[in-house]
Specification:
CATH superfamily of chain A: MetI-like
Helix content of chain A: over 70%
Radius of gyration of chain B: 23 Å
Distance between the termini of chain B: 47 Å
CATH class of one domain in chain B: Mainly Alpha
Number of strands of chain B: 0
Radius of gyration of chain A: 23 Å
Largest sheet of chain A: 2 strands, antiparallel
Oligomer: heterotrimer
CATH class of chain A: Mainly Alpha
Chains: A mainly alpha, B mainly alpha, C alpha/beta
Shape of chain A: globular
CATH architecture of one domain in chain B: Orthogonal Bundle
Order of helices and strands of chain B: HHHHHHHHHHH
CATH superfamily of one domain in chain B: MetI-like
Strand content of chain A: under 5%
Distance between the termini of chain A: 45 Å
Structural class of chain A: mainly alpha
CATH architecture of chain A: Orthogonal Bundle
Helix content of chain B: over 70%
Order of helices and strands of chain A: HEEHHHHHHHHHHH
Number of helices of chain A: 12
Strand order of the largest sheet of chain A: 1-2
CATH topology of chain A: MetI-like fold
Chain lengths: 278, 273, 384
């Protein structure tokens, strides 16, 4: 009784604003575009049949999201390692806090700052001064990747930091005492022990990136399209609500698949480690 | 190693430094620094629409975070007491609320609300006695609803992790001492899970305050601060935006520091005899 | 709409109105209006709104929202309007008519006035998204002095839904200090975009002009909805896409910063760019392109229609319109305004091209707005 009462508000909320909208979208996905745009009731599979026309956007997303997450990891790992292992303890907390602080300035405003830095008056201008003329950075896949690494770096650093922080430093000392070279200690002990954080970070960033809209929009100049951008475009320009709904449903399916795969990897890894320990 | 870490921090802070710098630009453009001035702070805070957008964002973030904290905590406690099957359903729904992309949440909520309101409003108009029946439209409520979905799931996740770490013995002892369930909750459980509720609230507030894409679809005629910023990127950014962003940054730094000092465990304070 | 009475209300009438208010059959606003209490309250409250500053029949409120295009107004006009009426204006900028339509169809835009293009008006009227204009509320608009060519599409089946803002053309702007190849046609445009201006050309985020000009470059009509011709245009656009700097209807920042050297361009942007950076030249396609007129219209869903009308009337007032044209560099549709325009504007060939150059241009056709084929080609081009 009390349990039901406690769960009721959340349950109603989930029903009204998750289940119901998703069902509405599913219904729309089988409908037709009205002559002037919008939705017209129908039962047709034509929206799903049209999905291949957005293959490029799906492909972009499925390639750039993991690449973005891995680049993010490349930058994040040394930082997290430094914070957890090398940083002087008295300065550790402030350094960790400094990773989170950027979150408190609007991502939009920060990304706009990148538009300036990558635009002709920013870095290309500086390069021009040292003799490298006419470099174009803004509105390229590279710019989008840079924006992704920038926007998601804190989200990648935190879980890795947490898992490295739990790492027992005596293990590293033991490894060194047993004659392991620093490199083999790092790859043999540190990296495996930080894997849970790495997997969490990569999965989290990849999944969030699958739905990214703003960064490609601002740094890609309308040219580098993620599936989120194709989706928004269908509602904002083409007014094709049924096709947009079909894409949204497909996106959710892709996210679920990616999530399932990464959980499988995590489980396999956790299982393997348990075996190792035995 | 050190050099790399320094470079990473520079990378994180270079755009922020630029934002802060340009907020003091004397020129009208956000693209050329022509001199130091604080006039944009004055302009920003006398700009009705910018102030209104900031106000809307604060209201939406505050209400949705409060609701998320309350309902999310309630759900977290309830889930611990549920049958295995009910728990699985809730876990699945909350997981979905977290991983479904914001752009999908925004569009799905828009589609559903436009359809539902299209049915509800004529109904209200049909039974309304007067000449001007109220029309329910998109606005605060729809943004709060859509933000609350994600943030409630986050609060539930955080609070549950905390509850899982709690010992049952205190709760049982309290029951043995004839405390009412509510009394036990208030005196034993709440103090222990409070930090996680506060953490969840702050995360919820931050998310809602910074969200663009969900609000973009479901806010109707209300403009939030990120929507205002997005619109002004198309209109041509003036240093006003930088001034507001800087103000928000400084305000939140103060809030974090304040919370840090307020929530410092008592035992850390020197005991004076 | 509530009218403020000037005759005093009797006690019996007041009681009757009050009871109606309590029963809920009138709104509070109606009650305050009829009884004159609103006026009293406004004056007592020391309000500096419309009542005090201007003898308006209706309360203009304190703010309104305008949806328009990039670089299309003189900010000073808005400041003057706010100073005169006490109404602050929120300006939202859009890069295509389709986006405006999408917003209005989804509901809740909050716009009180917006700027649609000639070919969209009939669809807006048909969908019931815009109000027929009450011309009595626009004393400074003069239908007689408007050019028929540029104002006729504002009237649908004898009802005026929109009045013209200005007309213009869609041509191309090129930075001649960077690009040496002469560009005089859309055929040239798409060729140079792939060669000399590789990575430096922009097209609009707007199906009408981007697809239309691609069609023109292939020798087809700007307004074609023929699937075979559209698929040729799509092929061309997708081939050009990797060479583009951006797909964006607000190309002034890119052109000014030197990021972009070549762009599809509207008259007003062409005039403004050329005024500030003389090496940016504006040309019309010799093979075709668009001639257009933009209108002011009031959305049915507008929350503050009185302010929408007031701003529209303000902007149509010749003295104010002149300042707008001088600032944004567009040709006028109104002979009263033309008489007041300075010679440097009327003799500017970007703003007023020779009539001969206009003959190949086409007005956008209503069918392109809703045609699913064009919408889908644009969406596929962008997501390619």
């Amino acid at each position: 009784m009390i349990t039901a009462a406690l769960a009721a508000p959340a349950a109603i909320w989930l029903f009204l604003f998750l289940i119901l909208p998703f069902c509405a979208m599913l219904v729309f996905a089988f409908g037709k575009r009205a002559p002037e745009g919008g939705y017209q009731a129908a039962f047709t599979l034509e929206q799903f049949a049209n999905l291949p026309s957005r293959a490029a956007a799906f492909w972009n997303t499925l390639v750039l999201a993991p690449i973005g997450a891995l680049l993010c990891l490349l930058v994040a790992y040394p930082v997290a390692y430094y914070l957890a292992v090398k940083a002087p303890p008295q300065r550790r907390m402030i350094l960790v806090a400094l990773i989170v602080v950027p979150f408190w300035t609007s991502l939009l405003v920060r990304t706009y700052a990148w538009m300036y830095i990558l635009g002709s008056r920013g870095l290309p201008n500086l390069l021009d001064l040292v003799g490298i003329a006419d470099v174009r950075m803004l509105n390229t896949p590279g710019a989008v990747l840079l924006g992704i690494v920038y926007g998601y770096l804190p989200l990648m650093i935190m879980p890795i930091y947490v898992s490295l922080e739990k790492l027992d430093l005596r293990l590293l000392d033991a490894s060194a005492d047993l004659g392991a070279r620093p490199a083999s200690t790092f790859f043999g002990v540190t990296v495996p022990l930080s894997m849970p954080g790495v997997i969490t970070g990569v999965a989290l960033v990849t999944i969030l990136l699958l739905g990214e809209y703003l960064i490609p929009q601002l740094l890609g100049g309308g040219k580098v399209f993620f599936i989120g951008n194709a989706l928004v475009d269908l509602f904002l320009q083409s007014r094709n609500w049924p096709f947009g709904s079909a894409i949204a449903v497909t996106m959710v399916a892709v996210v679920v698949i990616v999530l399932a795969v990464s959980m499988r990897i995590a489980w396999r890894f956790a299982g393997a480690r348990r075996v190792d320990l035995v | 190693m050190r050099a790399f870490v320094v470079a990473a921090y520079l990378f994180l802070y270079a755009p922020i430094a630029l934002v802060v710098l340009f907020s003091f630009n004397a020129g009208r453009n956000a693209s050329e620094f022509t001199g130091f001035s604080v006039e944009w702070y004055g302009k920003a805070f006398s700009n009705t629409f910018l102030v209104q957008a900031l106000q809307n964002s604060l209201i939406i973030a505050f209400v949705s975070a409060v609701l998320a904290a309350i309902f999310g905590t309630m759900a977290a406690i309830a889930i611990e007491r549920m049958s295995e099957r009910a728990r699985l359903v809730f876990d699945g729904l909350f997981a979905a609320a977290i991983v479904v992309p914001g752009v999908v949440i925004g569009i799905a909520t828009l589609v559903a609300l436009v359809t539902m309101l299209g049915l509800i409003n004529p109904l209200i108009a049909g039974v309304w006695p007067g000449e001007n029946p109220p029309r329910i439209g998109l606005g605060y409520f729809s943004v709060i609803a859509a933000h609350g979905l994600f943030t409630m799931a986050v609060v539930t996740m955080i609070v549950r992790a905390r509850i899982a770490g709690l010992g049952r013995d205190m709760v049982e002892a309290s029951g043995d001492l004839y405390a009412t369930p509510f009394g036990t909750f208030r005196q034993i459980v709440l103090p222990q899970i409070l930090p996680s509720i506060v953490a969840g609230f702050l995360l919820a507030f931050t998310f809602s305050f910074d969200d663009f894409i969900v609000a973009f679809f479901v806010s109707g005629s209300k403009t939030t601060l990120p929507m205002y910023v997005f619109a002004s990127i198309r209109r041509g950014v003036t240093p006003e935006i930088n001034a507001v962003a800087t103000t928000v940054l400084v305000a939140s730094l103060f809030l974090i520091l304040g919370a840090h000092f307020l929530m410092r465990p008592r035992s850390n304070k020197p005991v004076e005899g | 709409m509530t009218k403020h009475r000037t005759t005093p209300i009797t006690a019996a009438e007041l009681t009757a109105e009050f009871m109606r208010l309590k029963r809920g059959s009138v709104t509070r606003r109606h009650f305050l209006g009829v009884t004159g209490l609103g006026l009293a309250a406004a004056v007592a409250g020391g309000r500096t709104g419309s009542f005090v500053r201007e003898a308006h029949a209706e309360d203009l409120g304190s703010q309104m929202s305008l949806a328009t295009w990039p670089n299309y107004h003189d900010p000073a006009s808005f400041e003057a309007f706010t100073a005169k009426t006490g109404v602050a204006i929120e300006v939202n900028v859009f890069g295509s008519n389709e986006e405006m339509l999408a917003k209005l169809q989804a509901g809740g835009t909050g716009w009180d006035l917006f700027v649609p293009t000639n070919y969209t008006i009939s669809t807006y009227a048909k969908l019931g998204l815009i109000d027929p204009l009450d011309l009595a509320k626009l004393p400074n608009y003069s239908a007689a002095s408007e050019s028929v060519r540029f104002s006729n599409e504002g009237t649908v089946d004898g009802t005026t839904y929109a009045v013209p803002k200005n007309w213009g053309t869609t041509g191309m702007a090129a930075n001649t200090s960077k690009l040496k190849t002469p560009i005089t046609s859309w055929k040239d445009f798409f060729e140079v975009a792939q060669t000399e201006a590789d990575g430096r050309a922009m097209v609009h985020d707007y199906q009408l002009t981007t697809i239309g000009n691609a069609l023109v470059s292939l020798g087809h009509s700007f307004n074609s909805i023929d699937p075979a011709e559209l698929s040729k245009a799509e092929e061309l656009l997708i081939k050009v896409k990797p060479h583009l700097f951006a797909i964006n209807s607000d190309y002034q920042p890119g052109m000014r910063a030197g990021d972009a050297w070549l762009t599809m361009c509207w008259t007003n942007d062409g005039a403004q760019l050329n005024r500030d950076i003389p090496e940016i030249a504006y040309t019309l396609g010799t093979d075709g392109g668009e001639i257009w007129s933009d209108f002011y219209a009031i959305p049915k869903s507008a929350a503050n229609k009185p302010a929408g009308y007031a701003l529209l009337d303000f902007l149509k007032t010749p003295e104010n319109a002149v300042k707008e044209h001088v600032a944004n560099g567009t040709p006028t549709t109104d002979s009263r305004v033309l008489a007041l325009l300075p010679a440097e504007l009327t003799s500017n060939k970007i703003v007023y091209p020779d009539e001969a150059a206009l003959t190949v241009l086409e007005f956008g056709a209503a069918v392109t707005l809703t045609d699913p084929g064009r919408a889908e080609v644009m969406a596929r081009f962008k997501s390619a």
